[in-house]
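Hey,
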Amino acid sequence: MTPPEDTPSKPSVSSMIGPGILVAATGVGAGDLSSAGFAGSQLGPAILWAVLIGAFFKFVLAEGLTRWQLATGQTLLEGVARRMGPIPCWLFMGYFILWSYFVGTALMAGNGVTLHAIFPIFEDASTGKIVFGIVSSLAGLILVIQGGFKLFEKVMGVCILIMFITVVASAIILSPPFGEVMKGLFIPSIPNPQNGGIAWTMALMGGIGSTVTILCYGYWIAEEGRHGPGMLRFCRIDLGIGYVVIAIFGISMVIIGNTVEAKGTGAGLIIEIADSFENSLGIVGRWAFLIGAFGAVFSSLLGVWQSAPYLFADMWRLFRKKEFADEGSSPSILTDTTSRPYRYYLYAFATLPMLGLVVQFREIQKFYGIVGVAFLPLLTIALILLNGRKQWIEKYTNRPATIVVLISILLFFGWMAWQSWA
């Protein structure tokens, strides 16, 4: 049965765009700052089109899972479990654990590198990355446990405001000729396709706007009390704002990355960018960029620490209660953040990936992006199947234009994979 329409008469602006800002704050952290920065330094503004396509693809995917949840009262994971059985869920569980390790390491490393640039108390940048990465992870853990959802939402709002103003302003100052930017945005090309160009383009698209954490939008709108198809219009506006912010930030970081030549292991990329700002704008420019960069990477870490355990706790509930193809049990979207599955996975997420901090930062970012982008075709297939049957979702099935975009996502990533292996 489709949940009843639930449309507030006069929703506040903050309640309308809150979860979308969380998506933006989580999705434009370590992934965009580092992957886009490295991609920009390697390939230049020619790949700006990848930012637009990546953000648009993920908006369509996020809208699809939101439509499923509001129309059925089930999370997407619950829908997969009930309609497709346990095997896809077990496969996703394995992938999710692998993703958790790589994304956890990447987020710690991103925070560690940024804090080392702000407080260069260690002679070796790699040591600073490790120490500050561990400190950032533990700080995020404490905030998530002690603060609750409302504090989390406020901290994320402040972080994204800081990072958006400083990073976008920095990109405007450093922007290459207007014609070069327009060409990169609207004429797709991949420089050096057989020499890392495709891999970095895929990593850029994987880092733009989150991958697995797209699923967490459903839990955030549940925390805000959004239920029923009547909320779909507000969620579309909310997501649209979030992904516009993501696209602008990603474009800005590619432009900024284009101004420096990443050297060595890549652990010093943020320092190199900050140094270029100091040469051009003085010490004020350097600190403005570093403050914005930290707002980006810490908000991403905090967002993932808070949201990823939702997914594990939801899967744990499904496996434990064996709610596969069970039409009789009632769906439960809200996840108890004090439950053992949520807390235990949070503790593991915030500690075990510390082992990966000894790996070169640049390679972490590439693996992070590629592992993340591998999830998108799987999510696309799930949305084609779940949102394609009227007996499951009634009048909220995929429209023809949506089907075309979803198939385009599959074809695009299939082509990218074929090109990278050819």
